[in-house]
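Quick board copy: two proteins, each given as sequence then tokens.
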Amino acid sequence: MAKQGDRSEIGQRIKRGAEGVPWALLLRGGVIVGKRWNALSAKERARLARLVRESRGRLSNLSTRQRLELRKLARKLDLKGMSRELMPLVRGGGKRLRRRR
């Protein structure tokens, strides 16, 4: 069992770690992903989740028909467009970098 002093030390570490998290960027990223996710109907979202769960991260675990269906749903999510929107958040927090001359 942890002593009282240990608990307060752990709490302080968590607090310091949370201060360093860029909450605004995480929120912005969540909004971008949520917008794409909500572009799918509830039925499509459920089917996509089921396919990903069944595949366990490997396309070879799916039948050819299931793979085609997964690709169709992924295209509808527009993953390329989502990545274009998310990249500025990864590269410098949405700020444009200026070149030094």
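And the next:
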Amino acid sequence: MTRTNKLLIACCAMAALGGCGKVGELQPKAGQAMPDKAYGQSEPATADTLTTPSVQARPGRSDELMRRSERRRDDPFDLPPGADNTKDETPPANSEPKDKTPD
């Protein structure tokens, strides 16, 4: 068999096995129960609610296109690593004045 024939057979086998999935409602394994309802819920969670990702896990996408180049707004929290964000110019209490000359 040539290499292309082997590749074709492998692709057909993978496609056939891919179609063998169960189509229907999700159910817990035999002998196991669904999880208990969480504190504060009025009814127990279903399989659909447990498998649906939350908005925080999959946030919505913003497809807003930029129409023209714009400069970013100043971000006060965008500081380089180790930057001190205090604007106070007073030296620390444990430092010596700089006007002393060595003896």
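Board note added afterward: The chain has a mean pLDDT of 77.
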